Amino acid sequence: MTTYTLRSASPAKTRADVVIVGVSKDGKGPTIALGGEDVAAAYGRKFKPLLSSLGFTGRAGETAKLPTSGTINAPLLLLVGLGDAKKLTPAAVRRAAGVAARAVTNAASVAVALPADSPELVRAVTEGYLLGGYTFTDYKRDTRPESDKAGEVVVLSSIARKQEATAQFERAQLFVEAQLATRQWVNLPANDLNPPSFADQVVARHAELTKGRGAPKIGITVWDEKALEADGCGGILGVGGGSATPPRMVKLTWEPEGATQHVALVGKGITYDSGGYSIKPAASMVSMKEDMAGAASVIEALFLIARLGLPVKVTAWAPMAENMISGAAMRPGDVLTVRGGTTVEVTNTDAEGRLILADALVMAAEEKPDVIVDIATLTGHMVVALGDKVAGLLGTDEAVEQVEAAAKTAGEAMWHMPIPEEMSERITSSKVADLAQHDAVRWGGGLFAGAFLREFTDGLPWAHLDIAGPGFNTGGAHGYTSPGGTGFGVATMVEFVAARAEAASEDTAPADA
């Protein structure tokens, strides 16, 4: 079990197996970054020539290990590149800390001396290191024993004794715990995580977090297939009808005393997506366990919001289904009736996420929250538009602006996409139903999906996060992102709620006399 500590000690004098310092680059070449000055001073005039002999430029993501031979107290120095010195943002520091965490091997103790002279940077270093060191090894046999991980990690900061720094250090660890729990769920294969077992695991985690004195009080409700049918959730039932494992819906409620606002979070929970009769190519199916990332993220976001005690009512809705092929599976041409009575013509069974979200959005909207935020690995179109590291963000203006601000604080990349008026015509183009679930137009599919979801929000303030790209990393590790589930969106949703809580507090504060 690794312990994490925040201290103000000098990295040159700290007794640890490894000391990590950052190196930036400017017009004069590589230069030691803030936090590592004492290490550079210990080497004196030899430091820059040493960097040159190593070929170390300070490029972002670059690392080098250097035996210190007693120059500093730690026997090993790990250099990590931070990139352009003029662009030393919390996001850059967070990425560098993640890279450094993966570069450390066989060390009992580690001291991290990256730039951390503000509460924001303390948080960035802490989050980056903890996230970057994550690996999913549940199905491996002793490939990375726990003993290989450092027993102690110390984050060094000149402001370590300030309350703001300590608060961000502790907060960062809670955020990471939620993000790693999300990654774990997303990384589980579909043979071990299906709608019923996913719902059961949420129930178990809920019991764990709400147990004992002082634990947050969180409500939980689970709908099975019979309850879903009784409540008219035809979208979820249509998608899940082809699977041997029936669908579920999980609702979590955090309602602190005195809360004056209500935020609804809705996350797509397709535990496996074969595409149904509009079947995916074989290669595209391999990672389709990822399609429940939205549900995992709203669940963990609510748990974290409750643990932080944020004074806002939050409900999290997680519709869960498995999109498979059988004699009971929905077919192209079927018409489904979503909760509330809207009929939808299914023309592409691989556009199933919007169907289960429709039921959940209606149920969320029926409670008249102040704002709805939904998150889903929804469309390949958004990946084509924005790549695999940036989420698409659509919705009503004020909600989108607030989510953008929260994403900036969280360090998650999002881009505001439009919902053009023509999309209203496209989603109502069905000749047999109220709405078309999909159409044959090749262009703007991600915008079409956003327009479709908007129909089920009852005109409430709403934001939609399409995380089809950044929700799952199919490549190698980069920055603080490991292969597989990323936990993307959890931090943004929590910061979104935190910002609303802060704004409400300011609105109700008494005016100065």
Amino-to-carboxy terminus distance: 52 Å
The CATH H-level homologous superfamily of the largest domain = Zn peptidases
CATH class of the largest domain: Alpha Beta
Report the strand count.
21
CATH topology of the largest domain: Aminopeptidase
Unreliable residue stretches: none
Query: Mean of the pLDDT scores?
Result: 96
Our Rg estimate from Cα atoms comes to: 24 Å
Question: Mind summarizing the main beta sheet?
Answer: 9 strands, mixed
The domain tally reads 2
Principal-axis shape equals: elongated
Please count the helical segments.
16
Keyword list:
7-stranded mixed β-sheet, Aminopeptidase, single chain, 9-stranded mixed β-sheet, 2 domains, 513 residues, 21 strands, alpha/beta, Leucine Aminopeptidase, subunit E, domain 1
Can you tell me about this structure?
The longest helix is centred in the middle third of the chain and has 25 residues, at 163-187. The protein is elongated and about 80 Å long. The strands form 4 sheets. Strands 8, 9, 10, 11, 12, 15, 16, 17 and 19 form a 9-stranded mixed β-sheet that branches. Strands 1, 2, 3, 4, 5, 6 and 7 form a 7-stranded mixed β-sheet that branches. A 3-stranded mixed β-sheet has the order 13-14-18. It has 513 residues and is of the alpha/beta class. The relative contact order is 0.11. The N and C termini lie far apart (52 Å). It has 2 domains: 3-159, Leucine Aminopeptidase, subunit E, domain 1, CATH 3.40.220; 176-505, Aminopeptidase (3-Layer(aba) Sandwich), CATH 3.40.630. Helix content is 36%, strand content 21%.
